[in-house]
Amino acid sequence: MPSSPFHVAVLGAGVFGVSAAVHLQRLGALVTLVTEAKPANGASSRSLSWLNSARRRSDAYHRLRMAGIDRYRTLSAHLPSADWLRFDGGLTWDAGGADNTIAAIQAHESALGYDSRLVSADDVPALLPGVNPRAIPPEGAIFNPGEGWVDLPSLIHHLLAEFTVEGGSLITDAGPGEVLVRAGRAVGLRLEEAREIQADAVVLATGPAVPRMAKTLGLTIPDSTPISMLVKTRPQFSRLKAVLNTPHVAIRPTPDGGLVMDSAWSEEEIIRHLDGACEVRDSTIARLLAEASAVLDGAPDLRFESFGMGPKPIPGDGEPVAGALPGVPGGFVLFSHSGATLGLIMGELIAHEIVTGAPHPLLAAFRPDRFR
Ligand SMILES: Cc1cc2nc3c(=O)[nH]c(=O)nc-3n(C[C@H](O)[C@H](O)[C@H](O)COP(=O)(O)OP(=O)(O)OC[C@H]3O[C@@H](n4cnc5c(N)ncnc54)[C@H](O)[C@@H]3O)c2cc1C
């Protein structure tokens, strides 16, 4: 460790900030975690949180995601009865017709050693209760037995319990903070009313606010963050345990016996007003529930409970952004899509880099300085 005691300030209590804070503390750092409102109030509060490395992506990104899933498996083995972290598999299918490439995708996954099986509609009832086999096209579906889902607010509160019991300092409802830079170096956080927190290193983990905040620190991160929506049903009887990814809806169970769902088309239907406010039509929610019902066994009457709407952080090139802020010694950043899958591993690796000063090879492809 560079100095003793080594103090790290983390800004943002979504999954990345909380994971970084806990892993830093496990490595012996003194950690102050500051967030503007309550923990788990941002993208992490309204995430489908499918734990996966499905389909095609760069080798480096696949490796990172597999390490991410590995950390969840370890956690799951320690918490076998947790109702917020489940590995009950995933089922994916595409629209039937000439453009259907599901067999090629399955072959690609298999070639990587990703547990992946091409299944037909007839196979599904025995493998995955709760799915409507008639929704699956003749080309079939991919069954990934090793996939799962996590309820991120539950994970965040689980990690925060460890963080506070072990002496970590958590400051909530702090209002918007920023990275404090002196003589070109990140030296802590500046909070409202000119309050300052001094630190030897700072982690910027403010989710969708990262690109705007990184810009004030001299780094332009291309940003493709859309407004997204996650709809939740009331608790109800459903035999679905797996995560479903289908042409018009993605669904997973929730710890309280409900379902959550999202889709690309419903995201596009969100109305963005000139003043920045967003709105969702009742018809969009109704159609999303109908699409979900259509892929579930027995076409259940799904009762709307709530929806969450807001930015879904996505870097412009689609790849994670993790590591030292170029030109600002002491500054580090975490910004990514698929932050559910990557939450534990990216927090662990950034903590390793901060505390040891040694770059971790798994993050080599995702350095913020690729945008310089
Ligand atoms: C609809 C949807 C579906 C998704 N599906 C999946 C999926 O299937 N699989 C998957 O792996 N990932 C998925 N994701 C992505 C994943 O949920 C996100 O990548 C992850 O939650 C991002 O976490 P974060 O910590 O970066 O951001 P956030 O959860 O937004 O946390 C940022 C925190 O920083 C705080 N903050 C912001 N600005 C400041 C400031 N200036 N000062 C202090 N605090 C500040 C916020 O209040 C918030 O608490 C999905 C996301 C959405 C929205």
Explain briefly what this protein structure is.
The chain is 27% helix and 23% strand. It has 372 residues and is α+β, with helices and mostly antiparallel strands.
Overall pLDDT score: 97
The CATH topology name of the largest domain reads FAD/NAD(P)-binding domain
Helix content: 25-40%
Measured distance between first and last alpha carbons: 29 Å
Q: CATH top level of the largest domain?
A: Alpha Beta
The stretches of 5 or more residues where confidence is low (pLDDT under 50) are none
Task: Tell me the number of structural domains.
Answer: 2
| Major beta-sheet overview | 8 strands, mixed
Strand content: 15-25%
Number of helices: 9
Question: Which sequence of strands runs across the widest sheet?
Answer: 6-7-5-15-16-17-14-20
Query: Any ligands, ions or cofactors bound here, and which?
Result: flavin-adenine dinucleotide
- Number of DSSP-assigned strands: 22
Assign the structural class, choosing from mainly alpha, mainly beta, alpha/beta, alpha+beta, or little secondary structure.
Answer: alpha+beta
What does this structure look like?
The protein has 372 residues and is α+β, with helices and mostly antiparallel strands. Helix content is 27%, strand content 23%. It is built from nine helices and 22 strands. A hairpin with a 6-residue loop joins strand 21 and strand 22 (331-335). The relative contact order is 0.20. The mean pLDDT is 97. Flavin-adenine dinucleotide is lined by residues 11-17, 35-37, 41-44, 46-50, 152, 176-177, 205-209, 228, 230, 262, 312-313, 336-341.
